[in-house]
């Protein structure tokens, strides 16, 4: 919307319209700031990602150890039962 040139005659001319537009821009800017603050709060930092990566690797290593130990235990148990039966 182009601005009218000239003074304000008091009949709700260009200055009133300009103030309304500026107020709307300020309100929109406040909404943008709020949205940006929420987005920043939900970002994962490099440190967060690194710590999760370490935890995942540790969990995989622990799980692998448990699976190997369980397999050895079951194998030993099966051999023991087989010796008793046969």
TrEMBL record:
Membrane-spanning parts: 66-85
Assigned keywords, A-Z: Membrane, Transmembrane, Transmembrane helix
Protein name per UniProt: Photorhabdus luminescens subsp. laumondii TTO1 complete genome segment 11/17
Originating organism: Photorhabdus laumondii subsp. laumondii (strain DSM 15139 / CIP 105565 / TT01) (Photorhabdus luminescens subsp. laumondii)
């Amino acid at each position: 919307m182009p601005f009218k040139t000239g003074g304000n005659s008091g009949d709700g001319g260009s200055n009133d319209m300009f103030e309304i537009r500026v107020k709307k821009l300020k309100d929109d800017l406040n909404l943008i700031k709020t949205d940006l603050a929420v987005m920043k709060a939900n970002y994962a930092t490099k440190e967060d990602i690194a710590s999760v990566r370490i935890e995942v690797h540790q969990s995989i290593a622990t799980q692998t150890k448990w699976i190997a130990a369980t397999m050895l235990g079951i194998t030993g148990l099966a051999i023991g039962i087989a010796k008793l039966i046969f």
